[in-house]
Amino acid sequence: MAPEHATGPVGRLATRLGRYINHDDVFVRFVALWLVVAGVFTTAWVLSYLFLPQGILRGGNPTASRAYAGSVSREFLTLFGWNVAISLVAVAANTFRSVHTPLGYVVQVVQAPRYGAVWGTGSLAIGTGERIVPSLAVLVERSGPMEITAMVAIVVATRGVMVWHQKSGPRWKEEFERVRSPRDWSLTRGEWALLVGGYLLLAIACYREAVAIALVAG
């Protein structure tokens, strides 16, 4: 995610990180990007829990004010459809690549702190509206971490769907050039496995959330 010639401790760290998140092995890429996203999410979760007003992000959460769909199955389909649409936006972002890094990766890293802040401020769509206290137990109990993991898997698996490429920096000035066609896209077996696994995990997460919403809605 940084230029290969970056210098200094931060630059060298970013360059090394970039090698892992853009590694040829899809599972190395997955673990590396997941660690980055999880770290950003957790940092935002803790800081927002400590410093932001409770419920401040509820108005900006599109699912927070949505009415219950009426049954677990309909709620699941609503949630799953919404999340699949979000995943397709991230996959579409992968058609742009800056140097070595797909834009879909950036989307995940940018979204993570917002989601963490939603937890920290108690701005979730379901529940009492209380802040979620940072703890490892919560990560197992909630469906959110599964959704994040699924999204990372989907984006990493589709890294190769590039169309436009920015060959070098500075990234805010250089133009993107069309270098490939969708006809050139292909996935390895490992990427297909990760992609299918990502959507299966996303479905499980959405079902868990649908059940939780049904219990609250009665």
The dominant shape is: globular
The number of distinct β-strands equals: 4
Q: Count up the domains.
A: 1
| Poorly predicted runs | none
Q: What radius of gyration results from the CA coordinates?
A: 18 Å
The largest pleated sheet is described as: 4 strands, mixed
Give the helix/strand class. mainly alpha
Average pLDDT for all residues: 88
H-E string: HHHEEHHHEEH
Please list the strands of the largest sheet in the order they lie side by side: 2-1-3-4
What is the percentage of strand-forming residues? under 5%
Query: How many angstroms does the end-to-end distance come to?
Result: 46 Å
Q: State the helicity in percent bands.
A: 55-70%
Specify the number of helices: 7
Write a structural description:
The chain crosses the membrane at residues 26-52, 192-217. Keywords: Membrane, Transmembrane, Transmembrane helix. This protein has one domain. Helices cover 59% and strands 5% of the residues. The protein contains seven helices and four strands, in the order H-H-H-E-E-H-H-H-E-E-H. Helix 2 runs antiparallel to helix 6, helix 3 (72-93) runs parallel beside helix 6 and helix 6 (144-157) runs antiparallel to helix 7 (189-217). The longest helix has 29 residues, at 189-217.
What descriptors fit this protein?
7 helices; 4 strands; four-stranded mixed beta sheet; 59% helix; mainly alpha
Write the layout of secondary structure elements.
Layout: H1 8-21, H2 26-51, H3 72-93, E1 96-98, E2 101-102, H4 103-120, H5 136-141, H6 144-157, E3 164-166, E4 177-178, H7 189-217
Parallel strand pairs: 1-3
Antiparallel strand pairs: 1-2, 3-4
Helix pairs in contact: 2-4, 2-6, 3-4, 3-6, 3-7, 4-6, 6-7
Transmembrane segments: 26-52, 192-217
Keywords: Membrane, Transmembrane, Transmembrane helix
